[in-house]
Amino acid sequence: MSITETPTADNGVNVEALLGAKEHVAAEPALAAFVWKASSEWVNGAHTRSTIEKFHGLQGEQSHREAYELETDHPELFAATDNGVTPVEMVLAGLAGCLTAGVASVAQNRGIQLRSVTAELGGSMDIRGILGADRDVRNGFDGITVTFTVDADASAEDIAKLVAQSQKRSAVFDVIANETPIAIEVAS
């Protein structure tokens, strides 16, 4: 006779709710159609203020608990006023947030207790592209590195699998790694 222990962990993720949502959208796919939204307003120079409050999901308009404002700008060495992060740094922050949330969720589901999770991200870029100095240089990142440091009640192999599963389910990783159609219009 063998006794199997069910591992328990409390990483602050409601896995039961996530698994319940998974069952609901599998049974009724129309519930899974979400549109995430942001609006922005130019402030001055390269400074822009973006507001994120509403989104569409579960077949209706939804709202965050409150509106969130995000400031983007460029550093002074770009002749800007540095009132916020650069837009490309915001992309890195989005990737970090998405991957880390995935690590916490997967760990909770697998009964792995996390003590700390940190990530260091770097996006390399040749700015000759955005400055128009060389037409052959792309505007965006030419590479992104993500290094996780995870302290948890798990083996190094299990932590590697945890991070790999997070990457597999990350929406932001998918957005960055794969082509996404973008339609830009000018409203009159």
Q: What's the oligomerization state?
A: single chain
How many β-strands, per DSSP? 6
Overall 3D form: globular
Range of strand content: 25-35%
SSE-based structural type: alpha+beta
Folded structure, characterized:
α2 (87-109) packs across α5. The protein is 32% helix and 28% strand. Strands 1, 2, 3 and 4 form a 4-stranded antiparallel beta sheet that branches. Strands 5-6 form a two-stranded antiparallel ribbon. It contains 5 helices and 6 strands, in the order αββββαβαβαα. With 188 residues, the protein is α+β, with helices and mostly antiparallel strands. The protein has helices spanning 15-27, 87-109, 128-131, 156-169, 171-177; strands spanning 35-36, 39-44, 47-57, 60-72, 114-124, 143-152.
Search tags:
single chain, 188 residues, alpha+beta, two-stranded antiparallel ribbon, 6 strands, globular
Write the layout of secondary structure elements.
Layout: H1 15-27, E1 35-36, E2 39-44, E3 47-57, E4 60-72, H2 87-109, E5 114-124, H3 128-131, E6 143-152, H4 156-169, H5 171-177
Antiparallel strand pairs: 1-3, 2-3, 3-4, 5-6
Helix pairs in contact: 2-4, 2-5
